[in-house]
Design a protein that fits this description.
By secondary structure, the protein is α/β, with parallel strands linked by helices. It is built from 11 helices and 18 strands. The strands form 6 sheets. It has a 4-stranded parallel β-sheet with strand order 5-2-1-9, covered by helices on one side. The chain has a 4-stranded parallel β-sheet with strand order 13-12-11-17. β12, α7 and β13 form a beta-alpha-beta unit. The protein folds into 2 domains: 168 residues, 3-Layer(bba) Sandwich (FAD/NAD(P)-binding domain); 158 residues, FAD/NAD(P)-binding domain. The radius of gyration is 24 Å and the shape is elongated. The structure holds flavin-adenine dinucleotide. The site of flavin-adenine dinucleotide has 27 residues, from α1, β2 and α2.
Length: 378
């Protein structure tokens, strides 16, 4: 099989980066002026700003507003080439990645392939409850949402009209909370005056969360704040309830059947198969366990003993392992106006749910209120 890395100058280390999301693109950018030959591989031809996907899904932005061609982003990096393709494996012995039947040789490999939706083993639910990770996901959700309103406008059967105007969001993490706020604003503001038969303000938006609170990985005070804000917007927040079935009619929450034309999945993520490619340990959702140098411990030993080409030497400030490396800085995120307004929750008076949330928070001893903020669920 031809080795697509053969055209790279033999003296310079070959860095292969798989994935041009935030992580992969940042690595490529930081290596722009280094004496290395960089190959940036992605199965999409665009880099995507995922935090604004929910705005595309609710017709607030168009896909082109949040996606940029990877080629144009590295156009001026003379040491970087871009390949479009899906990586399906890594041959650690021969040091190449396998992409669409080709072998791409590397001296240094960066796997930055992100995550996708996880349906807790119920993969058949995917057809009924799309998640929100890609532009295609966002446009599919937008299509389903807008079509449901159109069909409701022409529907004479009241229960079916109610089903069309019911939207269930599964998962009360950051994505679910954002989506719930955005969907309710779409229905109650953006579309409010556009229909003659139905009243989009009557749309029923349910946010279902299996845990006792929203945003479980954030401090409890923020969970309460989000819950209160969503209830004020009119979202039907269901805590301690799990989806037990997801089908064409809608969802089942234990014994309760909820007829809903649109179901959006925001309940779980699963890592890319990188752990399997490397034959190293993954955690419960498949994330590779790495050390402070972002290498799996087992690989640190393997790669040094298996190196056939000269190891990559880069200026210290560019070394990915350096704690002072610019690439180790966390990115900052813009606060969208919708998200900010949902968080401010300044519209209507409190509800029973709001009081319940405050009482729950007040009743908990301070020591039991988690202030540890960890990564989002995606
Ligand atoms: C709806 C939503 C809202 C979010 N909001 C926020 C927020 O407000 N703040 C925040 O900090 N984070 C937010 N996040 C999380 C943030 O977007 C992710 O943490 C971040 O995108 C992860 O970056 P990454 O580079 O690791 O992976 P990704 O951005 O997922 O990039 C992975 C890349 O790898 C490519 N790829 C995957 N598999 C292969 C393969 N086999 N072959 C070739 N290419 C492959 C993909 O096409 C993709 O381009 C949000 C996420 C979502 C989904």
């Amino acid at each position: 099989m031809p080795d697509s890395g053969e055209d790279v100058n033999g003296q310079r280390p070959r860095v292969v980066i798989v994935g041009a999301g935030f992580a992969g693109l940042t690595v490529a950018k930081r290596l722009a002026k280094t004496p290395a030959d960089i190959t940036l591989i992605d199965r999409q031809n665009h880099h995507l700003f995922q935090p604004l996907l929910y705005q595309v899904a609710t017709a607030g932005l168009s896909p082109a507003d949040i996606a940029w061609p990877i080629r144009s982003l590295v156009r001026h990096q003379r040491n970087t080439r871009v390949l479009l393709g899906a990586v399906t494996g890594v041959d650690r012995e021969r040091k190449h990645v396998i992409m669409d039947g080709r072998n791409i040789a590397y001296d240094v490999l960066v796997l930055a392939t992100g995550a996708s939706h996880g349906y807790f083993g119920q993969d058949r639910w995917a057809a009924h409850a799309p998640g929100l990770k890609t532009v295609d996901d966002a446009t599919e959700i937008r299509r389903r949402l807008l079509l449901a309103f159109e069909r409701a406008e022409m529907e004479s059967d009241a229960p079916e009209r109610e089903r069309l105007l019911t939207i269930v969001i599964v998962g009360g993490g950051p994505t679910g909370v954002e989506m719930a706020g955005a969907v309710v604003e779409l229905a109650r503001k953006a579309l409010a005056a556009d229909f003659r038969t139905i009243d989009p303000q009557q749309t029923h938006v349910l946010l279902v969360e299996a845990a006792p609170r929203l945003l479980a990985s954030f401090p409890e005070s923020l969970s309460c704040h989000a819950e209160q804000a969503l209830r004020r917007l009119g979202v039907d927040v269901r805590l301690n309830q799990s989806v037990t079935e997801c089908a064409a009619f809608g969802v089942t929450l234990g014994d309760e059947r909820v007829d809903a034309a649109t179901v959006i999945w925001a309940a779980g993520v699963t890592a890319s198969p990188a752990a399997a490619w490397l034959a190293v340990a993954g955690d419960r959702v498949g994330r590779v366990l790495v050390g402070p140098d972002l290498q799996p411990p087992a690989l640190t030993m393997c790669s040094s003993s298996a190196t056939r080409r000269s190891p990559m030497t880069l200026p210290a400030r560019h070394s990915p392992a350096s704690p002072r490396s610019p690439s180790s800085r966390a990115p900052t995120w813009p606060q969208s106006s919708r998200r900010a307004s949902a968080a401010r929750g300044r519209r209507q008076p409190s509800t029973t749910g709001t009081k319940a949330c405050s009482q729950r928070l007040a009743a908990r001893p301070p020591s039991s209120r988690s202030d540890a903020c960890s990564s989002r669920d995606g």
